[in-house]
Batch of 3 targets.
Target 1
Amino acid sequence: MKNDRIALKTAEEYEESLRKLNLVVYMFGERVKNVVDDPIIRPSMNAVAMTYRLAHMPEHEDLMTATSHITGRKINRFCHIHQSTDDLVKKSKMGRLLGSLTGCCFQRCVGMDALNALSMVTYDIDKKYSTEYNRRFLNYLQYIQDNDLVCDGAMTDPKGNRSLAPHQQMDPDLFLHVVEEKKDGIVVRGAKAHQTGAVNSHEIIVMPTISMREEDRDFAISFALPSDAEGITYIMGRQSCDTRKLEDGSIDRGNQFFGGHEALVVFDNVFVPWERVFMYKEYEFSGQLVEQFASYHRQSYACKVGVGDVLIGAAQTAAEYNGAEKASHVKDKIIEMNHLNETLYCGCIACAAEGHREPSGTYYVNTLLANVHKQNVTRFPYEIARLAQDIAGGLMVTLPSEKDFRSPVVGQWLDKYYRGRADVPTEDRCRILRLIENITMGTAAVGYLTESMHGAGSPQAQRIMIARQVNLKQKQKVAKQLCGIKE
Amino acid sequence: MNAIALRIGVRYCGGCTPRYDRVAAVEYIRRNLPHGVELVRREDDAGMVLIVAGCKTACADRTGLEGKVVQELTSETDAITFIEYIRRNRNSWASVPTGNDLEA
């Protein structure tokens, strides 16, 4: 990053910057000594690194980079505050691009969405209370942009008993909260669950998880910290088939290069300096922050369209390797997969194209369409995955291991009996089936399926938003007029 | 002596869902351009800019291209058409000044 006009790290610089962090990460009950090179975590780092690598490629920089509205420097779009609907559209396209090249979650969108939501909320709080959150935020933003950093946007508290408000929980730590106020900052305690890409992040941006009332004001806080701040511990989530990454060989992993990860992030009496605090007990703004972050993040599920591209490509390849690609029902299933995938794309493009400018100057998505898009994402990837499994056939889940294929005794039989088309090596057939398994049942299914269901809010959260935003009365009025009902 | 009559700056769209291999198309153009015409990354040295878009939407950012001759590529066949266009007009390009490195 030597050019004054450009603030872009290379993928190699990103990896090196992670090595300088002193993260406290636990997995399988033990502290991870070398996070970057851990074979289970490494593929997720590779996926984030793609957000850096593509920014330097002429054929992708138009989507991957933007011009900072505060410095005029060329920055990574993941650090950008949207300045137009064109920026919003390019964000959706960037998500598809990265999903289509990695076949997984690349983890960096959540920080971008947190930054954009805070750019609006800090401005609005200042308007009401003459606070200085927006100035602090813009200083922080420039630091993020100038250093091309990855931010984890941490919203989801463990939440305990869902029927109780934060202050009513038997254990107050089930929602992250302030435990001490000092002259130079605050001390916080609690945890954030399901944190995508947490240990690949330089920074962690904390936001409240739900709308709050006055009784919950100690929980209505937002701040940012370096990811290796004292008192923060990461506990890695398991993924289906995760330990295949520890095995010799490569076939059974499915995706050779990329993956995602989630972690529980524990804040055990962590100090936050005032300069990094962006909301402090202004409880009436917690709902706005949640809604604005969630709407951006629901748009971000454009990435699943890209993963869908990979899965469709894999299904078509499996059909060809099976010699079944000309069967009419197979062709029709591929068409259906594409139809569903492009329908998803329509939603993320539409909510961006129909975005608008907020008082802060930040451009914000059309929230109705963003919620409709995410609602579709809770469904269509499951159907696309079902169709991919239909086309792939049962062999996808009955294949012996790569070690058996390498066995001097039984390997020859597997090669003989699991060959499809004569001109396609059995190994290639296995590889494409393992990739479909990876995306629909293995480590990548975390991102493609369950994250599609619950990430950025579970389906019911979108339905509530849809119900709140449609103009039902107007629809009724016209319907009544057209059939002659007089009121 | 290597006279450069025209430098063509290449600007890609981001490539979210390209309908063809944009990089391969540019390489094809590079290999088939007439002598004296070359593709460059730096647009400020270029007498013409070629927008290489993956689809007809052609959403590549146009900032900074005001006043420049801009051609657009949105398909593989456009690459062939573009080469023919350059060849057809090669004599007129010879007089187009393209910066300090006009002759090397």
Target 2
Amino acid sequence: MNHDILLGAEAVARGAVDAGISAAYAYPGTPSTEIFETILELDRRDGLHLHARWSANEKVALEEALGMSYAGRRALVSFKHVGLNVAADPFLNSALTGAHGGLVIAVADDPSMHSSQNEQDSRFYADFANVPCLEPSSQQEAYEMAVDAFDVSERLKMPVMLRLTTRLAHSRAVVTPRPRRAQNVAKFTDESWKWTLLPSNARKAFDELLAHQVDFQAWSQAHPANQLTVTGQGRPGIVASGIAIGYVKAALAEKLNDYNLLHIGAYPIPEASLRSLVASSSALYVFEEGYPLIERLLVGIGRDPSVPVYGRLSGLVPRAGELNADKVKRAFGLPLAAKVHVPAAVANVMQPRAPVLCEGCPHTDSYRFLNEVMAEHPGSRVMGDIGCYTLGYYAPHNGIQSCVCMGASIGMASGVVHAGLWPVVCVLGDSTFTHSGLPPLLDAIREDTDMTVMILDNSIVAMTGGQETLVGETDKIVKLVKGLGANPDHIHVLSPLPKAHEQNVALLRQEVAHRGLSVIVASRACVTYAKQIKENRRHQGLPGMVANLEGKP
Amino acid sequence: MKRDLVLCGVGGQGILSIAAVVDQAAVAAGFQVKQPEVHGMSQRGGAVHAFVRMSDGEIACDLPPDGAAEAILSVEPLEALRYVNWLAPAGVIVTDLTPVANLKNYPDSDRLYEALYSLPRVIGVDATRLARKAGSPRAQNMVVLGAAAALLPLEPERIEHHIAELFARKGEATVHTNLVAFRMGRTAAALLARLVDAGVVPLHAARVVARLDLGPEPVDGAVLIACMALASCPDAIARIDEAVGATAAMPLDAAALSKLAEPCLSRVATPA
């Protein structure tokens, strides 16, 4: 028998399923993707009959989950930290509606930006929304907190955030599960006024939320993950949150007994514990995997300066990037372990090995004809977006000059046109397009903005490991673009194949020259996930072949 | 007892499969395990690494500190060098010697191997060729695991059990290929160790072993004697390459090897 050696992300999924969820909603994004993928797997394996399909984007995912909660059943939402920006509107408002069926939002942050465009700390969102947040420090705790989060959500009638970071989401350890609980029976909330956030209701709901904060404090103060250990009055104190506690233990070992220690794993920040730590300590060292949330509270302007506070704000710990045991050791001036002697010959041969587009990738062909046309307009720029094709920024493609957030390529291209520059092209993938490319395209259609939008349709969400797309078929993308009102004369489908290079160059050249909006769908299935695409299509009841494999519109 | 390992290579080389086998074997042997790995952007042909931390006590954190790793297991020689900061002073690098040169400035092999063997303890095997011989080039990760097996606090039989479990859903043939690959890795590493113990320069020993037609079985005495004889000849590599008519790694079977080694035999004492 194999042991359950689970990623932190997988542990969260197991916990949610064992807590009796009826649905899971998500949009793929590293390091959160495995949460939902595990739910799909458990659903299939155990015949759970959950509602579990990838959502169009994170906002939609959270809204679907809100509906599930409104109807009295439990839902897990999962996405990466920047996905919470997309879902921020329903998230902040869900604090006012509260939860009826248990509602847990699992957010995976990516400090050090292994696969992300920033390293924002989602705990600030929980604080901003005034909702409880759990931050596990191990895989087992990730599992248990996922289960508990649903209990807390139903007891406090509040959505609860479960915050992970890369190093826990993507690290494995043995997890021991508990017995599985049955799902809730669907039953509408009898407080529909709270879910109707007209100002008159919202003011009342907000007052309730504020009044409720005392209960959240009491809950977090009593939570076993928030452990205060005072080893002696007047000793230096340490605050460590989430997985930072592990680095502190590894760095200090038995020296930790000479410090007072507060570990925080449940938020709101347990104020009474923090106050006792401050009162018993000569100085405070703060270690947080992420932004300085707790440290900022401790530093507070106008506080008593006799207890100095050291952390990311003070500069003792680097402000950016993941923590590790060596950063903690440096903070305390402890010697680091000896390493193997590395002769200069090693550094002399070392080369970065950045991720690259796969061999035979359709995007490579798209960048080839795009670059050829753009070279005819020296100084022109291409607005890019988020997906495998973002790798087109690097040599040898050097095909895009921006990448900000999902769907930004179209809006930014419009802005460049508004500024009076020409020609302007933008590229984004099919899934990114349906995620958040529709509204900006609608803007561009209204103004017939003079630019060319290239939708790189590879029929899969490839960068995150091959998840199904919403439309799945090139025809549907074309219908979508037409339906939004784009001029059909300037909507084209082409096939990014080497043999079609010359005709693709000619078509793009012609559309770039057109003084109005053009949309080109470059359609060819991802080479890496060809098998997965077939499976997804069978699942959706579509024919086995991608419609425009041969480039026919 | 604790062991921290770095597992590394290029996306698609089965780094996480090595991790999965070691995880299961270590947990079954009663160790606590923490095993961080990378997903996401790196999967696209970039550098991929994972750590396996095992201990008979509590493991405080998932990420090992610099200098903690007793071994780096790499499925690509340049990648082996990327993580040397994690290697302990007496740490060992176990690596496939076959480059994946999908970079513009990939170093030429002289500079690459000079850099690799500038480190104190290196077990270099031609895992790519051995895997192909075992039945599939994709099994190169299991050759590397085999070559590192002696460094792990795990019975080889236990590791084999979990290799078989991991590949079971891919069928009997795949299980067999991966088990043979693992055993070939063990054989190659054992032979290398004997040669290095006998005083042969490690790179030289690796080049000789890389040219051998190694089976999954332990090396017999005749092969060992022939290898030691050959490896002690300054012109051994040239002699072998001349004999097999190629500069690339070519398999030499025991008989051919013995014949080739005959002129050198007087140079070495028979091993005990």
Target 3
Amino acid sequence: MAAGPVIRTAGVDGVLISFSDTLNESANRAALAFRAAVDAAGWDGVEETSSSLVSVYMRFDPIGFDHATMHHRITGLLDSRDWYQAQLPEGRRFWQIPAVFGTDLAPQLAQAAAQAGMTEAQAIASLAAARLRVQTIGFAPGQPYLGTLPEGWDIPRQSQLTARVPEGAVAVAIRQLVLFSVSTPTGWQHVGQTAMRLFQPDADTPFLLRAGDEVQFTPTTPDALDGMRRDPMGGATVTVIR
Amino acid sequence: MSRGLKVIKAGPGVTLQDKGRPGWLDAGLSRGGAADLLALAEGAALLGQSDDLPVLELAGMGGEFRAGVDMRIALTGAPMQADLDGVRLAWNASHLLPAGASLSIGGTVSGSYGYLHVGGGFAGPRWLGACSAHMSAGIGGPVQAGDELATRPDPGGDVGMALPVDDRFSGGTVRIVESLQTRLFSADERDRFTATTFQRDTHGNRMGVRLVPPGDGFHIDSGRTILSEVIVPGDIQITGDGTPFVLLSECQTTGGYPRIGAVLPSDLPLVAQAPAGAAIRFRFIGLEDAIETERRAATARKALARAVKPMIRDPHSIPDLLSYQLISGVTAGSDSVDED
């Protein structure tokens, strides 16, 4: 494992605490747990926190509170325990999300499977068997990065962008899946399609997934998926992890 | 007739904006809000009200509006040609828009984003605590012809006031601090970066603006891959082809391109407002200097209300001045040259 956490300033009003410089399980757990601890500490001056794959970002009022004070608080909290051994946060949920793999709804399954050294059937079995964790939410509203897939899926992003994948698309690269919350261009390969609407600004719960939640995709047919499109959850079921 | 502001015509980039909705970064939603936050403060000072109230942001082009009731308005940000029933209105100023009068706002004269404020503010729908349309997230949408924009009650106040404003509408030098990956760029690359005069690309929006160097792009040493990391407005990403991209209020919330620096929040309006082709340079300053700069900017924003002065009717604000026969037989200005 890399050396312990590194604290860096991020712009005039931000601090980043990185638990690793590569993606790994213990650093992702550390980031999730440390961010929860910063929120629980309720430090004055802190305006916003978030976790990404292996780090925690904290934005504060730099006029009322100086960087040295924030740095001191952060090191104090970092030293209070071994964050790499931290438990995952409480209240996490397990989502089972219907998805069509391949067909014209997800046209890059064949090429992604080939790159991963699998037949299409093996690829579908592998993707459907994986119980994945929301490692971070980011890029677009409510959009999860899900990991970690088996080693075979360590395939690169495409050098040429796909012009547009639809909302609800499942795309793969570097042992992760992204479930798209908006229609967007991407370098990730479009292998599955769900009917899930991850961000609904008008709903009581605008964001469905949270960092730390777990996800498994259940293969379904295009016809069945069509029937799920009226449901904002896209036929997904959710249970609290105990 | 509606008590609000009727939209007769609107440019493609007219949206309701406020200071945005910070606090959803962890949910993947950037804060959004007005591209030029200083313009919000200026309009608030002109109308003697809070800078939290929703305003109309006019990207590049305004529109035509009709008031349902007498209302106070202020015009700030990128100067645009504005007329009230055919009479030219001063920019960076407050005016009375009488019921039934028609307000016409054309394209930007310089800069990119103009703002139309009303006394009491607009009363738009709120999502996640703010009224701002966030186009890339699909929150709200552009204001369109036929819309009736509701306004909140205006406690009233002066009109005919002006606010002197420094030019931040034609590029210039932007102060930056080091950011997460600044030191991954060699000292030579960083020096070359600050010695370069960039041109604001024609391509740009509320997510960010691309800056074009006259020569080679900028690169970090080796083919080092960078883990996707949090992104906030002001970050300067160096994209795959080596050109810098300065992120604005509607940026994505994570990204994997290296960041060579971060623009000071108080200098970000200068980047957002730079029109296509404008020259931009960057200058690194230390963190302590940057914080002192932000402190002074915050003080200056608070002092804006005291800088508001009754408008002096200068010759430029008199409509059709050039057509007046100032001296018998001779028209003033450039008309006479054009006629040769």
